[in-house]
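User: Teach me something about this protein's shape.
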Amino acid sequence: MILTVTPNPSLDRTYEVPSLDRGEVVRATGERMDPGGKGVNVSRAVAAAGHRTVAVLPLGGAPGALVADLLAGQGIEAVPVPVTGLTRSNIALAEPDGTLTKINAPGPEITGEEAEALLAAVGERSAGADWIACCGSLPRGLGPNWYAHLVARAHAVGAGIALDTSGPALLAALREGPDVVKPNLTELSAAVRRPLATLGDALGAAEELRGLGAGSVLASLGADGQLLVDASGAWYGTAPAGAVRSDVGAGDASLAGFLIAGGTGPRALASSTAHGAAAVRLPGSAMPTPSDLVPSAVTVTADVPVDRRLGGPRP
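Assistant: First, the predicted structure itself:
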């Protein structure tokens, strides 16, 4: 069972538009509405793959109630922690050439009591979890050390801890030794405070995060594939994505694929790469099912091409 924690969930509305013309009336050609937030997306991908998942998240107001309903409709067991603020609503505008414009709301401000209730809910539901995935930005009211507290508490129950966040929250949590961290290239670059132009640069940055406490680093490199670095070595995974329809949630699908395949080694990297490649071919933040995956198209190698230059989209 994979338990996910999403401190700043959302109600995501995606509109497919023929073009985005500022100041004009734009008529959508397609639309969808999904429960959102990085941890929520991981749960959705895990459920789509046929595995059990539990999603712990703060929810407030009518948007929060709708998120809970949407999760239930996808067969996901939700553990809502009531908050006084309204769950945020996000909008994504997808153009035919793959260009995606996103408008993300800030979300509610979480009180001290609500923050503690969220930690308590994770503790209550973590028994029997193989992995606890802590994902996404922190809402207002939660300081950068909140994930560090969560990782410390989660380790106490013996589950593996996967962390997908960025900035000060990522750096603070590294001190508690999360088993897996999953930055994208932009987040990896920000964490080491330098540009990463090649795959070798990304490899060095991943090793630096390991030196700060991460057990392994699963780096999403967009069109340039994925990189896994752990105590036993490094592996590089690629798969042709084809036409990109939407990259919303592609990194979350990758993390789900990694965890359901055991969360370690080249087999898990292959699953992660297949899930990420499948996700970008789907509309909005739709998560891939087994029928969407093309495992035969995935290549994983320990011979990392360190001179390869990076520059693809960043899921």
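Now, about its shape. The chain has nine helices and 14 strands. The two ends are 25 Å apart (CA to CA). If you'd like, I can walk through any region in more detail.
User: That's plenty for now, thanks!
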